[in-house]
Queue: 4 jobs
Job 1
Amino acid sequence: MIDKHFSNMQRAEVLTQALPYIKRYNGKTVVVKYGGNAMTSDALKMQVMEDVVLLWLIGVKVVLVHGGGPEINSIMDKLGKKPTFIDGLRVTDKETVDIVQMVLAGKVNKTLVSLLESKGGKAMGISGLDGALLKAEMKNEKLGYVGNITEVNIEAITDLLEKGYIPVVSTVAGDSEGNVYNVNGDTAAARIAGALNAERLIMMTDIAGILKDKDDPSTLIPHVTVKEAEELKKQGIVSGGMIPKVDCCIDAITHGVENVVIMDGRVPHSILMEILTDEGAGTMVGKDND
């Protein structure tokens, strides 16, 4: 965030400008949904971990909710199993849900915990199965063990936050019969953020935010209300893969989140730009004004 050619005076000025935002977010809860392209680059991964730890050090209660689609695909490929998707959701048979649980709750989760610790953070990894954090039911028989969230129990997360940890949450869920489900990461993050009454949900994706012209990053819409977001869907400006992301934003706000930001996770230190600067990053979806 601070260029190596900055003078000490310039560095001090940058920190001073961040002070109002540090005051605003101190003691507040921010949920970060992390996955996709920002997760596949080692350099970007380290920068995201640095951002999370810095926010934690200044008193922000950060909850990191992660996916891991590329890692799941990689393991499936090694096992000779081809991924299949319907409407963007992974078809998850019994063998695949075992792989999902192993990769998300195991390798990916513990790697992120280790990286946060290496940057000076205090992190604890949990899954949606721990403390019955995420309860789910089968979304559609054609999709197999893909879960529709029916209940969120946040005690495990709040206990960790109270003890000063950064909770790192993998998005698998369970039911009363002991079945395990693969849950969409954006949906899980929205419901968790809502249950926590989070100040902000940050959704890291691979585009700048909501664009008037999907092929032109300069047409970024910096702020929309829930009603305006619904109207953009009707107009076709929000289309394709952005529809479920915007729906997750609306869902999060409906469940109690103050506002949600969709941002390009490929931009270095985009989290800090969003939280600690005037300009912010991406598109903020907020409550209706009336």
Job 2
Amino acid sequence: MRICIILDRMNPNIAQAVRLLSERGVKVELIHPEKQLISLSRVRVESDLYLLKSGSDLALSLAGALHALGAATLNPYPTVAMMRNKIVVTRVLQAAGVPTPDSYLTAKADDLVPLLEAGPLIIKPYQGSRGEGIRIVRHVRELAALSSNAPIMAQRYVEPDGRDLKIFCIGARLFGVRRIWPLRTYQDKVGDPFRLSPELRQIARRCGRAFGIDLFGMDVVLSSGRPYVVDVNKSGSFMGVPDAPGLLAEHIYAACRRITRGEPLRYAADAT
């Protein structure tokens, strides 16, 4: 079996998962689109399965070209491309009954002035990742710093009860990790595991079904005891998940086996 991983950086879990896959006889190729010159005319489907671990423009474009040529990607390329847009992601979550903060979309920062009368807002780059560019706006004067040439996505700021919650899904399994935000150290990324409540499990199931995936990360804020989903990651680092490398390797291996047997990729309908 041949598996290709398209990535921008190597995290410890992926590095160990690659080692475990190689030990099982899988030929694993790593592509770093930002670190190499790619001849577009020579791009062809040469692996049984592609894992898209980067959301950069170049990585998505390469994955899109491979998808157009018939490549199987995990998660599916069209879904990953859609999930890069937080505007789309938020509306899909809302339609699926997943609780999110009140969210607004505009092209003019001045439109947000009346909203600030009810309290602070969080402004997010609509195509951001890893928490980059997120800011809390509490005063009208801070709106002047917002970009005027891109869509502005704003959400009502919900005061967290404590640390943020990260929920990871690998196949049919869910894991919870408490984290400090913003992340400053390696230990912050590892966080502390916690047992998911039935309510959080149900929310995670809805999220997975909404996008048709079972390999993702989800950011949740508890505010006054109520959960709000503030972001969904196409895959995630899976830092803090017990035996993440082994679980990831098994999940990727099983997906590749289905592909080589001529079966379609399947996604867990209900994570447990």
Job 3
Amino acid sequence: MLELSNRNLYLCVALRPDMASFLPAVLRGGVDVVQLREKQRPDAERLEMARIMVPICHEFDVPFVMNDSPELALESGADGVHVGQDDVSVSHCRDVLGDEAIVGLSTHSPDEFDAALSERASYLSAGPIVATPTKPGRTGTGLDYAVTCQARSDRPVFVTGGVDAANIAGLVAAGLRHFVVVRALCEASSPERAARELRDALDEALG
């Protein structure tokens, strides 16, 4: 299984027409895990995009994760899959992808996190710590939830919700180590520079 404990900057990105240039830019900037998270488009389009992204990620020795579907992850050559509370089970993901694949699981409450600790997930996510347009209708969990999850977990806990170069040092100071980023990179005018600013701020905070 790919080791994730030393990977800290996780990009979630939807389909975009400039992926062939955007993705190498953020990887040069320091992103070290990538997920294709696309809820709206047909499987065929998601698969086509994944087949562009997988070789780019592997060129940079960065794992690529498909959202929601272990079957698409297998077909695209992804390193794993990330599922939410309403998606297929972690056990099903393991049946499809095997024990060596990455399987991530989202949590949004203490009860969900407690249950997730008994699952065969490679990593967990906690949040969003603040409300975010990438998860419409979901209220923020607050920082304490994520900090408690990280302290209790034997696996990496990736924190979601509003992470950027301005606040990442404070999140590290609170005890967090692994971060999911969406808008700070996907909406950046210079994705490589934005990724480098995040990476530098994170590395300095981790010390």
Job 4
Amino acid sequence: MKAPIKFIKPDQSAFFSILRKRVNAYFKENNISRFGNREMVVKSIILISVYLLSYLAILTLPLQAWLFLPFALLMGITKAGIGMTVMHDALHGSYSRSNFVNKLMGNCIYLLGANAFVWKVQHNVLHHTYTNIHGVDEDINTKVVVRLSRQAPLKTFHRYQHIYVFFLYGFMTLHLLINDFFKLLKYNKLGIIKDQKSTLAKEYSKLIGLKLAYLFFVIGLPILITPLLWWQVLLGFLAMHMVAGFMLSTIFQMAHIVEGAHQPMPNAEGNIENAWAIHELQTTANFAPKNRFLNWFIGGLNFQIEHHLFPNICHVHYRKIAKIVEKTAEDFHLTYNVKPTFIQGLKSHITMLKMLGRPVGQAANSKRRLSLQ
């Protein structure tokens, strides 16, 4: 697939050139690898172990039916943690310098019921290259009744999206179970599968086989070997996915659908009049940089600016290099968009959802009123 959009401000390229030199110098001077370290390995063991032990408890412990629900919820929490921490870095190739290890740990995506090939195309190729560009970045596509782009059609019910959106966020991973089939067809039509040196038949066979294996793992086996009734298993399955989907969606959207994160449109020639690195800086936001536990659990996704500029660096290093990125942005008089706390980031996301749910004039007035309060 030919790139539909180009970034055409080569005179701005000095920012990333200098930033990259400074970041590379940090790793060289401290004699550390840009890949994962012991912290990453320990974190992976903890999250995957809690997920699998919770599943094992459901299969083996002689508990009352209602007592299995907490284990299902715990699976949902750790499922989200694995997705944000282990799988995310591995599929970016930053978990380890070993391709084998990256592929192995990237396979954790199948614990979410998602597909590695589809995710890499949507996330690594489209989202990371064309961040917040309507019609290309699928992450800001309208999600049924949720409007995430200023360029998307505005409906009357969008006015209330900041109220109902968090319930819908819970369906994210359930949506992936089905939508991956349609995305694969879309990517084949666009020629992306061929560009990735694969075929539709190969990817579809893997997609079907792995989806069925996942459904047998989380639904079929519990029905077969536990005293739980089928509807009880399905209830636990739904609870697990709703928790994981809610957490994943909320964290991902707080990085791009917040105040100060741009949503630029291509010019008449179909290009973005900006350097790619500056585009990434202007379309992304950090939040809660001092929250150590949050940073640990969500895989550094609260340092999204650093992640978008250096997706090949493991997230365990983001807290350190963030100081370099912020200083370099300051040197070039560029805005480094950071919300100091999780609550402030969440409020900014809700404010942005309100603005996107109203016509431009009303959204501007709403923002003005909020600033005066």
